[in-house]
Request: fold
Amino acid sequence: MGGLEAHGRDGVRLSTARRWAILAGVIDIHCHILPGLDDGPDSMEISIAMAEMAIADGITHVIGTPHAHSDHVFDPVKIKERRDELQAFFEGRLILATGCDFHLSYENLEDIRFDPNRYTLNQKNYLLVEFADFSIPPSLDQALHNLQLAGLLPIVTHPERNPLIRAQPERLFKWLAQGCYVQVTGQSLLGKFGRSAQECSQRWLADGAVHFIASDAHNVTSRPLRLKETFEWVAKIHGDDVARALLVDNPRAAFEGQPLPFVPEIAEDGSGKSDSRGARGKKRFWFF
Reply:
């Protein structure tokens, strides 16, 4: 990664550090940084260390997204209190917002009908949606549609780490055709979650089926709040524009509740797979 270079407007080759300085401003839309709420940090000290790690890595905005799951009580008042407490340490250095990692349980789906903003990213209109590893019933397709009818924009989180979705990728592409978006974990692309997750995330990225890359950080060791290495990998393989779109521009749009500026068009058959001649389906990138 250290030798990665790019050309500036004047044709001069840019070093990795210089490119990062120009393209920095990364926004992490999926992160378990708030303490004592779920399986993320259990103390404010660890949360502070995660925030310092993010700043050192060039990240400017982080959305704390604790689980909305039966195993963890989702309390928006407590979440805001923890966010405000952590933000007080980092005014002017890091912007923190809140959202959640929304599990598609019956209770959550009922509750979100009455108060959707308590679950959305920065209380706008994008919603992180996580599927269970043990069952994805067909009824959840309709549940996603109902969320959209309510004005929400579902983002399917880390499908590359879900064995059921990896085994049935056509379901993911059906959700894409339905108007959902996809977020993969940065470390998946780098192989930190195993070969299957790496291969799927890289293939879906190449197929135009990825709209966001996030850290899904939980701590400072095994699940760190870093995205620079991933940015560099994407820039090397797919170019600076794609790296910036997936780690800066689209996340900023979600943060602000705006339409995504970068939406790849997947293969015409909706599968994202190569055709019989080995060529990828056409993709077009829209920058508004």
Q: What stands out?
A: The chain is about 40% helix and 15% strand. The radius of gyration is 18 Å. The chain has one domain: 6-256. Confidence is low (pLDDT under 50) at residues 1-13, 272-288.
